[in-house]
Fold:
Amino acid sequence: MPATLRQLLHAMTEVVIPEDGLDEERERVATYLAEHGPQISPEQWPGIVELLERAEQECLEQTGEAFTETGPAERGHFLRELDPALVEPIAEMICLCHYGAPGWSPGEPLPAAWEMLGYPPPPAPSSAGRLPAVTRRLEDLTSGGGGTFYDVVVVGSGAGGGTAARVLAQAGARVLLIERGKALDAHHVGADHLRNHRLAAWGHNTGPDLEGNPRLCEVDGTDIVARPHEGPWNNNAMALGGGTRVWGAQAWRFSPTDFVMASTYGVPEGSSLADWPIGYEDLEPYYSAVEQAMGVAGEAGHVHMGHRSNPYPMPPLAPGPASRRLAEGAQRLGWPVGAVPLMVNSVPYGGRDACVRCSQCIGFACPVDARGAPFNTVLAGAGLPGTGATGTGPAGTGPAGTGLLTVLVGTRVLQVLHQGGLATGVRARAEDGSGSVQDVATGAVVVAAGAIETARLLLVSGLGGPATGLNLQGHTYVGALGLFDEPITDLRGPGPSVATCRFLHANPGVVGGGMLADEFVKTPAAFWSTSLPPGAPKWGPGAAGAMRHAYKRTAHVMGPVQEIPNPGARVTLAPIADSLGMPVAALRGHSHPDDRHSAHMLAERAYEWMEASGASRIWTWPAPRQVPRLSAGQHQAGTCRMGESPATSVCNPWGSLHDCANVVLADASVHVTNGGVNPALTVMALAWRNAEALANRL
Structure:
């Protein structure tokens, strides 16, 4: 009788994970892949199945023994001879399934690979977490005869949109906040280690849907069509809260020098490097307001950072063993270090619990709602104190207290409607398949859909002017990993707790620089994918031993490179459409070639830091590329930069479009440069400032 696909996969797992005592685990992996393989890799799966079936038949013909009946070593040799190009993809799928344990839920027996590595399982959510009240159907906007006119419609509920909506409602405006994604509580975000926004190997845990939402992406000069979880798509989470639903919560302020990059460094050839039309002092009161309203744990004193009008509202989280070792290494080098500011409760704050130091922070929902963001603080009734500059109302009045904020989820804004240089409304369509379309009249529109989708929406709507979509940037990440002779991590989160800002600026021969910090706790699957020492076996004999040895003995330092913007990196409209028939974004161009100087410099400093901290083996990550690629990702920015001239910018210093004054931008698309640190706090501070200015004009 011919072997079944599950039997063939089981035989293959014996080649990939040959250790004794794992037969039950191999059966689990084979069963899972037999069922889910076509969805995991629709392009490669038919070839993988054909390879295994050929192996069974040809092994029998050549040796007289079926593939499933030979020894694992013989199988591996036979497969490599048969079709080496397909051996690696199936071995990778098996290893990811082994270390990622897809389908596992808290409370179930610990997966075999996690038990082997000593990975502590994440706790089940203690509650659903705090979410604002939402409207789930577009047609419900008209129920009760309330009409569909709003003073302001806000598009996008992430770092910028959530902040702007709350400021406007607090100021007395009737606000409709529209989010295309779902309102996912902590139970529904999911804890799949292979489907999340940190390791989206097989999908992700928010939105958008993997099918029906393509983008056209230029990769090394060739256009490809990418799905949302694939790297070139440059995905940010799409759910209530946007990227902050699953973010790592690093809450850095930009350095004062970040606002005057052109004046500081000059303008490199081929770049569009420019100064911001505002400075750090303009934004400082709003930085402080966000930190107090949403809660940030940190400590002042990082080099190259500006003055603070208020201390952080919470002390930093306690460092782990790797952080303490790195701090000692930095001291030997004479480098100043300090705590990483996190929008994570180190103590109870704002009615939410303190962090429980679980093993999976970034990419997942917080199990105790200790990680903050607009969606679970100011939008969910935590109050919104004034900035101290102009004020936005009393503290302690959440959305229910104002009665002015409606949050609509599962709805896509198709275009901004406008006439005579002013927006008159938005056209929205339900994402639930009902086909419901409605025009919503409004006095102003705030667009905060992320740098890629904001630019795409303006282009579809015929707004923004000639600079719309240009200067797309993000953050190239570089760093170093160090293998120590003894365990260096206790696998307690969140992870980042020590950083140096010494290399943000004043680096000879480099424009800008970047911050370096220790990394988030890596799940076993993420560690297997990215962090094994070079040359270590990833599957087959010796691979499990390499994982066991390295997992708790490896530390990782990395940071974002402040990129040099250039107009060739851009968002345009693609000649293909999504499931709603709307043109999707085309991402073209690449980062500025001079960014490689900053990247090499920062990687070298990370290596030096690991060396001073006592690592016995060190390697930089990622491997340097000769051909620069487009950079955007979760830190996407710059496509609708602020400025004074409509020829080179899209909006004015208050976020208002040059060609449509009552359309205001409130996300990182307005960034002229994107700093050498994580940009989310700057997004929130700018959104607060821009929304406050809009409220004063209503």
